[in-house]
Fold this protein.
Amino acid sequence: MNKSKTAAAPRLGPAPGAFTLVELLVVIAIIVLLVGILTPSLNKARQRARDVRVRSEHRGIIAGMEMFHGEHDQYPPSALRDANNQPAQDPIGGGSQNPPANKIMSGAHYLARALVGRDLKGYAVPGTGPDADLYALDNYPNGKPIYSRSPTYINPEEYTLVKDSDAAMQDYTINRAGVMPDMNKRPGELMILDFHKYPILYYRANPRAGRIITDPQNPQDPRNRGIYDHRDNVYFTGDGGSNGGWQFKGRPHRIAAPGDPTAANWQPPVGPPQTFIEYIYNRQTWTTTADSQNRNGRLEPYRKDSYLLISAGFDGILGTDDDISNFIEK
């Protein structure tokens, strides 16, 4: 006789190996927590890696500058000045270019021109003849060279070189964020962007000058000439007043205001630098020459015999702690 089989009672609770809702929520919470912990670390690691790349770019530029100095017995200029020490129009170019080729250029532009030339084919020694507007071109229309060429002092393929015009800058965030110079004030010349995609600023020293920077209130007086001149890159930094400069992230640069090189009883800032002088003054020189109250030290800049290179760093603000330069070690 067949015995009837009793149906198995339904299993209560989760099947073996399955997650309960509470366990699933705990796992999700742990994942979210780990992401929150690891993301800042990953971002910092990424930022450090980019900073390493920028420093490598600076080293290449420094090597190129020494080659330039060895060949021309000087570092390239970072500005042009007239007889009254006022900004002068760059003579190279001419014609009906838009923006006009006769324009005020910055140290960042002269750096690129010196290291790679206007056409990425090498620096052309300036001339004063009637064909000076063709200075950076290879040849006359009939094929005869105009001026002697130096080789490129950096490899153009290893750097981001763009003109500061709208068309050239449209793919870079600094073209879309914050405050930019008016188009009619842009020289339309090459500049070197670092790996953060910000222009590398360049200031050449005037070792014979008597002040840390040129007095912006009376620059035409020879007694007021500075070792460095804040105006060399005011196109980017701004001047602390009506000229906002090129604010890469929409915020003013810390070195927009030049500072007063004639101020009596100058003292180092307690907090972060708020002027160009506070940014470039040589801390060690001041400390070793100041009195016990940290006053009356010798106010002179870093690298007073050569030049300054400055990159804005990850935050895009010139004058902050994450800047990368050739004068402040980190």
About this structure: Residues 21-72 form the longest helix (52 residues). Residues 46-325 form one domain.
